[in-house]
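Exercise 3.2. Students should predict the tertiary structure of the chain below and write it as structure tokens, then compare their answer with the key that follows.

Predict this chain's 3D structure.
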Amino acid sequence: MALLVACVVGACSSADPVSTARHDGVATTATVVTNAEVYTVNAERSWAEAFAYDNGGTITAVGSEAEVMARAGKHPRVIDAGGHMVLPGFQDPHLHVPEAGINEAPCFMDPDQTLAEYEKRAAECANDQPGSGWVRAAGASLFNLRDATELPIGTIERAVTRETEAVPDVAAAIELVTINAAYALGHDDNTGSIEVGKFADYIIVNQNLLDIDLEDIHTTKVLLTVLAGKQTHRSPRFTGVND
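Answer key:
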């Protein structure tokens, strides 16, 4: 699981010097992800064929392969997604409230419970706090969750298949762990979707989550994980990167 933590930085102006890297012995100023089903989680353009980002990890173009390649400059580094789905990187939307007074009358949890028990308790807490968009709780111990094996994609499946209060569809579940989570953290201007000006935080997965049976979502494999333009995980089965 790659935990994406967005950093707040200023956007570079066109007057800034262009950084270069070398790929196959040739100086490059951009990376282009092509041959992809890019689900941008951007309401203005939900799907794209390709996108590009500079060596600082900022997305510079999103669109068709022809559009993106035309804007990528000479000799871009190319990542061939192999026709696979590309998603924005998943975000960790929990917040550490600095003052206990903000969390007035929280719901307390036993520090020795399992993840399943915490989830059940959270549902009980939600019922006790009607009208709130948040569950105010305290006491849970992260040390008891170190042995949890479920990947973030598995939570999407559970969100859309649970019997009560299920998320309406997979697209909405994806939004919960990408753009909505980034909004909760106050970083939606920098991450959470694949848009020009945002960080190149994304994953490539081996199947389209919107096209498969809901019960098969948990079988999805992450082929590549990139954080702010830097590769943090690559599956041995993914051959689209030629470093």
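Discussion points: The two ends are 23 Å apart (CA to CA). Residues 1-23 have pLDDT under 50 and may be disordered.
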